[in-house]
Amino acid sequence: MNEFVSSSSIPIRTSSKFLPSYLKVLALTLLREIASAEDMEEPNETIDLQAEVRRFETELIRSALIHTGGRQRQAARLLGTKVTTLNTKIKRYKIEI
């Protein structure tokens, strides 16, 4: 059974054996997003776009790595990027595998 599970607007194909762990990652990401939104003191407070992009990208990479059991080549394919680019971002963002 293959399904499409989406984090934002990016479809990710997942098999039923990875679905529970992937859903857990998505749920935790959603909880972090809610906590982040609650931390904003004023509605007109500015948002650091670069920090938000880094945070979102980190979560996508972490989700792909969890989904693929830590296999960077498969995670890169899933994300539509080169392995070298993924590896660079893993190091830059200090993502633990």
Commentary on this structure:
With 97 residues, this protein is of the alpha+beta class. It has a single domain, classed as Arc Repressor Mutant, subunit A. The protein is 60% helix and 12% strand. It has helices at 19-39, 49-67, 72-79, 83-92; strands at 2-7, 10-15. The chain has a two-stranded antiparallel sheet. Helix 1 runs antiparallel to helix 2. The protein is globular. Mean pLDDT is 77; it is low at 1-12.
What's the quick description here?
This protein is α+β, with helices and mostly antiparallel strands and 97 residues long. 60% of the residues lie in helices and 12% in strands.
Oligomeric state of the chains? Answer: single chain
Please list the strands of the largest sheet in the order they lie side by side.
1-2
What are the segments in which pLDDT stays under 50 over at least 5 consecutive residues?
Answer: 1-12
* Extended strand count: 2
- Amino-to-carboxy terminus distance: 27 Å
The CATH architecture can be given as Orthogonal Bundle
CATH class division: Mainly Alpha
Principal-axis shape equals: globular
